[in-house]
Write a sequence for this structure.
DNA sequence: TGAATGATGCGCT
DNA sequence: GCGCATCATTCAT
């Protein structure tokens, strides 16, 4: 299977202020070599969660077993279980010791669409990844993938093009505190943004 | 078409 | 126990 060699994003991409990474990550491609086959998608929506200054962040009240990877190196995957049936995928940002991450909320399916449909039966293509819980379900991600390194070969981000994005900012969804922080970033041109 | 609600497990007070 | 970085379904307007 020959194809163009794309640039895998290095750890330095994640080792920056989280809000900067949030803007830059829109339009990037996430690639996951799952047990079922290769999956990829174009990122169109993320939210920032930034440790100390953010009461809505899981890490705001200190390090625990659950949020430990947020305190570690940038460029690591943080996956947690929520509402008894869903998982959410995050990318750890900022230097080691400073807990911060980006929640991947939505993406457009690119490769492995048939596998995603198998994991999320009955969904229309554009809805397969249009929400954080749906993304993890369609990608087959769970806590077993927590802590994976984005600079490895299993899951990583790629730069594939420099297309124009129409980036909008808004308040985060499903959050009760720190509503004044407009830390949800999304591409308003995309039909795959969450509801 | 928008608001309310049930499903369901786990981490924290 | 309670609340949660969700989603699909039900019910009311």
């Amino acid at each position: 299977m020959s194809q163009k060699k794309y640039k895998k994003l290095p750890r330095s991409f994640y080792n920056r202020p989280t809000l900067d990474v949030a803007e830059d990550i829109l339009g990037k491609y996430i690639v996951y070599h799952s047990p079922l086959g290769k999956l990829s998608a174009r990122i169109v929506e993320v939210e920032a969660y930034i440790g100390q200054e953010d009461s809505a962040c899981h890490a705001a009240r200190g390090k625990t077993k659950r949020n430990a990877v947020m305190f570690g190196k940038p460029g690591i995957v943080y996956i947690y279980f929520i509402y008894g049936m869903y998982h959410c995928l995050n990318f750890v940002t900022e230097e080691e010791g400073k807990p911060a991450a980006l929640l991947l909320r939505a993406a457009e399916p690119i490769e492995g669409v048939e596998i995603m449909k198998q994991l999320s039966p009955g969904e229309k293509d554009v809805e397969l990844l249009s929400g954080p819980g749906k993304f993890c379900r369609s990608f087959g991600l769970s806590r077993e993938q927590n802590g994976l390194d984005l600079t490895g070969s299993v899951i990583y981000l790629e730069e594939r093009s420099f297309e124009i994005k129409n980036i909008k900012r808004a308040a985060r969804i499903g959050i009760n505190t720190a509503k004044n922080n407009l830390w949800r970033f999304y591409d308003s041109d995309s039909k795959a943004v969450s509801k």
Remarks:
- The mean pLDDT of chain A is 96.
- Residues 18-25 of chain A form the longest helix (8 residues).
- The radius of gyration of chain A is 16 Å.
